[in-house]
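A reminder before we start the practical. When you read a complex entry, don't treat the lines as separate problems. The point of joint prediction is that each chain is placed relative to the others, so the output describes one connected object in space. Small molecules and nucleic acid strands, if listed, are placed in the same frame. In the example below there are two entries. Take a minute to note the order of the lines before looking further.
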Amino acid sequence: MNKNKPIDNERLIKYREGKLSPEEAYELERAALFSKFHEEAMEGLDSISAEALKADLASITRQIDKNKPSGSPLWKVAAVAALLILSGLSIFWLANQPANNEIALQKKEVEEEIISQKNTPQVESIEPTESGPQDDPDESSTAESPGAESSFDDQALDEIPITSDNQVSEKNLPGGTIIKNPQSSIAVDSGSSVLSENLSMSNQIRSFQSSDEEVIESLAESSYHEPMATEENSSVARQPEATFDEHTRAAGSAKNQVASDRQGGRKPPDNPYPTIGWDNYKKYLEENLQYPQEAIKNGISGTVKLSFVVKPDGTFENLRIKKSLGFGCDEEALRLIKEGPEWVGVKKPKKVKLEVLFE
Amino acid sequence: MLKKFHHTDDDLDLVKKFSHSRDQKILGLLFERYMSLVYGVCLKYLKDREDAKDAVMEIYESLAHKLLNREIHNFKSWLYVTTKNHCLIKLRHSKSFKEIDDHLMEFEFVVHHHEEEDDMEENLKKLTKCIEELNPEQKTCINKFFLDKKSYKEISSLTSYNLNQVKSFVQNGKRNLKNCMEVQNE
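Here is the predicted structure of the whole assembly.
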């Protein structure tokens, strides 16, 4: 009912002023009764006076009319976004001695731990993973170091001044800047439009905490450079000389962290990861997710949490829903995983937990 | 003062046109259809006019990117969810995480499932029965609203209830009806 009927601002204002005919008023009231969107909107609009409403709507309209988003042609925005997606934002963590920061990829000698703030709006994947860096340059998984200094949340992100560290960033970022700080280890991207986008998206993913999974050790002494194909902004933190106990556990629920643990060593990974890498996997989920009709109809959003066990041969079993959302979302999440890319197996079968976000 | 909406295109046509042409005007047109609703929802959650106005602009500005990056089946529902999410994110920045998480949970599950392919006649019977079970105020208002198609204001002048009472009788009555129907369907 009234499915796509546009809501004329003037009508709304007149309604508030009591100037609508009974039929028109009825139509509006009925629409509000049958749509969560209308209902909540009316609730909000009723909290201010008709005059205030009139003024506010006019001012928003003016802004929209003159304000092309980000003030730049859309294709530019899209181009930047595409660039960011393709080349990824490189994130660093500078070690204690900035002198060490050759950006060169000396991955072989480096063991590192990355915490990155991912902004894939739909998905979050989250197991600590170890893998050989050469295998999979894009891979990332979650982890957070126990040290408070290397964790951050959205608020922190918000407050971080954006500085540019030429020393580092020039080589890597298409328009990205990086904040480095050995203790606080947060990197934030550049373009403010992108940033705001990031901030707005970052919260849509709640982090998922790994249970008593493997401890990831981070032994790195030297710094590294990590090109990551993230959708937009990512931040990385590394804890130089700590053992990462329960690092994922520290993740607050409003954050999402994705970290990748790359090891220079040649031993097989301890944790399974998608053959195409975490980032690509996320991209896969994001791009292939089909929002179920039922969920749309009912205004459902949220996350489906699921888990499965990856076997040494890369196949998985025991795929099950941990947190259901219903309305077809569970089935869709299962479908995505089932039809999704393969996994790199590990020595022993290992559980992987994933979250699929229906935004 | 405000744009007129003489465009006959439906939302999805506009979305399609926009993704082909990337024409900002189309996006503006599309967004303005729901701008007041978006603003209303923002007001509801953020409870501050300035914050809500900012939020509306932020949502608008993020629209292009989002529209180009995913397939939308129902723009209005999608916009609603996007708006709500945006507000919750903003709230998270200002309030404790937990509080908002709870909030979020609350409304993820509040939405009721609605069987669609029910037998019409069956439903009507149940509905009549359910209306009878409403309290007198709700019953009066529900009947006047849904059967006589009277606006809240008219109902208010036809009865002794004031506008807010009418509104809540209709809203609560409708909710009770829904619950009653669901119980009957089980």
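Discuss with your neighbour: Chain B touches chain A through 80 residues (CB under 8 Å). What might explain this?
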